[in-house]
Amino acid sequence: MEIAVLVNSCGNTSGFDRDGIIRVYSRIQCEWTIIRYMEFRTEKIVDSMALHAAIREICDWLKDCKVIVVERIRGIHYIAFEEKQVSMLEIPGVPEIFLEDLRECLKHQRTAKEVPLEHNAVFELRPGIYHTDLREVMKGHTSYNSKQILLPFLKNKQYSLLEIICDHVPKWLENEQTELKLRYSVETYKDCMKVKVYPSKAK
């Protein structure tokens, strides 16, 4: 598995609003190794057309690598990568620290459709931060619905953030807000939605 990460000069994840380096990591003999890299420069990105052209060039360079990690996702970047079937993930920090956990998360999500239960559908990216892609979990498994998958987690798990990738906001979520003591926000992209769920006491 190859995972691309946009980093700054200090080696921490960065964003496409500033200069950085895109590193492609591969797990070789149980260690994450940089197998290639390219510079990302913002000086020539003067408008959205230039940005889309730059991202198309990046995607062509990534080849079979279909995941890129950044510090913070912006909608225009997400859409441009989504058009090239490259997934963006938002993880602040040092790649060498989170890559192994991310690999496990991605591996389980790809097999989650075989056993789409809460315990292997929601994954911890880092302490207190959880992620699930309902589109993948529910693909081909109409006997399960989003409430059956997420409600046990929301009732029993301590979390500071749960990110849900979905086609639409689960209708039951608003009705359960008070009882579950949660709040949420919604980000809409071209092909999906991202619902960010927080405990209501969190600021």
Automatic annotation (TrEMBL):
Give one Pfam family: AnfO_nitrog
For this protein, the record's InterPro entries field holds: Nase_Fe-Fe_AnfO
* Name assigned to this protein: Fe-only nitrogenase accessory protein AnfO
